[in-house]
Amino acid sequence: MPAIAVRPASHTALIYFVVSVIAAGATAQSNPLTEQQSVFVDPANPIYSLVLPDGWRQVSPDLGRSMRRSMPADLAILLNRGRVDRFGAVDLWQKNGFNGRCLTIHTETDGEPELSAETLEQIQAKFKGRSDASSLNYTGEPGLATIGRDKHPAIECRLSITEDSGKGLSTSLVYIVPTGGRTLRFSFRARTEDFGAAEPMFRKIADSVALSSLPEGKKELSDKLQTPLIIGAVVGFLMLALYKLNRPGSR
Predict the structure, then answer these.
(1) pLDDT tens for residues 181-201?
(2) What CATH number did the domain enclosing 199 receive?
(3) Are 26 and 156 in contact (CB under 8 A)?
(4) Distance (Å, rounded) from C-alpha 152 to C-alpha 246?
(5) What share of the chain is helix, strand, coil (3-state, %, to 5)?
(6) Which range of residues forms the domain containing residue 213?
(7) 200-232, pLDDT tens digit by residue?
(8) CA of residue 28 relative to chain centroid, distance
């Protein structure tokens, strides 16, 4: 499978990102079916923007910790350290309890993975290694894909976590996205029995994503050697969070 060809980041890409954010905001406000949706962009770190569904908002670490007192296991995924943005139907959770649907976005600043068949194999190996080392099974078929309004190159994977008995615990729609020398990991998670109902909403959010930078593109050999480290950080972080959430006795 060939690597996806990309262009280097440029000032033009940043300008286009700003225009995309404005356009997304105008669409969310003018569409009567989505008038309660809002465009999220972090002013302190404007790497990406996306349109959140009605009732969704960002979960601050302090808010997550305060809710964890009443939902200790379910919210473990939202309290990981590092550069993580967290989103969900916070007001609904506070009223009725965590419904299992959430989005976490992890930023890895140490480089980009190469979008190639070799990288997909490395991700599969991470899943197998984690399954062999724990009481849970991690299965997924990563593939080269795109994300967002501008078809930004990415790796997409549906990651399922099951017990040895075959009982499904959670399913996540995951995108690993190289952008401007960084790597973003978008993880849309739902309980296994709810994922089919949640997936259209997740994909709608993914389709709304705009990124401020294009991937840096073709790498030198020394840079390619970093790909396993980047994949290890991004995928390992994801699986650790999901393990904490799904380990026996946590539900």
Answers:
(1) 889 999 999 999 999 999 999
(2) 3.40.1000.10
(3) no
(4) 31
(5) 40, 25, 35
(6) 11-246
(7) 999 999 999 999 898 886 555 445 545 555 555
(8) 22
